[in-house]
Amino acid sequence: MRRILFVDDEPLFFEGLQRMLRTQKNGWEMAFAPSGDAALALLAASPFDVIVSDMRMPGMDGAALLARVREEYPQVVRIVLSGQTELATALQAVPVAHQFLTKPCDAQMLRVAVERACHLKAVLLDDSIRGTVGALGELPALPRTYQALTQALANPDMSMQNIANIIELDVGISAKILQLVNSAFFGVARSITNIQHAVSYLGIGTLKSLVLSVEVFRVFAPKVPLEGFSLEDLQRHARLTSSIAARLPVPKYLVDIAIVAGMLHDVGKLIMAWKLPERLVKLLAKVPEEQCPLYQVEEKEYGFSHAEIGAYLLGLWGLPYAVVEAVALHHAPDRVPHRNFDAGAAVYIANILARELESSSPSPWGDGLQSHQEYLISLGVQEDIPNWRAMAAETKSLLVET
Predict the structure, then answer these.
(1) How high is the pLDDT of residue 362?
(2) Cα–Cα distances in Å, from 124 out to 80, 117, 227, 347?
(3) pTM for the model
(4) At what angle do helices 171-181 and 267-275 cross, to 10 degrees?
(5) From the CB of residue 249, how many other CB atoms can be counted at a distance below 10 Å?
(6) Which domains are seen in the chain, by residue range?
(7) Res 65: pLDDT
């Protein structure tokens, strides 16, 4: 039984909501709070899976309430449902809400948002990690990328294309831009998985407001260097994986999915480096000891890896399911049956091809395409691998030149 807490100061809204969701009575246990203080009292009394709050309320507004929930109950999924759609409201909601819906909201849209958020718990079973990820309102950016973006936005002659090119270099900024543009605040009728389209849709004014908001972006600045981890290397690998995935033979309608999932596939590592640095360093140190790749060390220790951590966050943020799935399965695509060469297959193969190019010698632990021969055969692509390796090498050389 899902436990959903709705918060709004309008009694008529609750009446309409109960009528709209009457078919959910067998699957949802719903509670209604007329204020932020009342909502916090209910949360203190018993656990909830999801909180859905209006933004503009007397006393404690929605942003303040969700900030408290983020701090005190980080495992609760936070959804804004508001009739206020101006940019200022969006900027208030971005750091504290996982997803944003607008009034009026039809029952199906609300059901999908809530159910999908609840199903994500199956992706990441560890309560403490869910709490850590659930508390995130932003992701850190590479300092020089953030500086380049702020300078570009301050230049009135800078093109949208150049701004998008800068954003595409950074995992954290890309993820946050995609979260925002896919929210109902901007009324997009379809999912956007292309950074160029996202930048064009948001526009310079919105991007400036976002980038200058200290609550939306953080510069990655670890207190001490993390042995075995480099944000610069992660960003380079993400870009190379994304570029290789773009050239693999996925159906045309999935190309943008493959590109974005390739860029974001290691976002779980970024989360760990930022919020769980000691844990990441210990895991990285065990890689040579265990003689297996990092994700296998993680799975041995905890039963999940950075792939699931990243997918959980992107799912909470409402990114398209195909992106979330490709990120979750980028080390083990055969966990879900695949009949065709889709975005998940492309990201899996692109990730390994990129790793091969970045390594001075082949991995001695079998973390390569040879470990999934049956999967490649099932897709009918095993004979294409030599050509794809050549393509990947060409892609890397082109990126070095740019």
Answers:
(1) 53
(2) 23, 12, 26, 20
(3) 0.86
(4) 110
(5) 11
(6) 2-122 (3.40.50.2300), 140-219 (no CATH), 231-401 (1.10.3210.10)
(7) 96
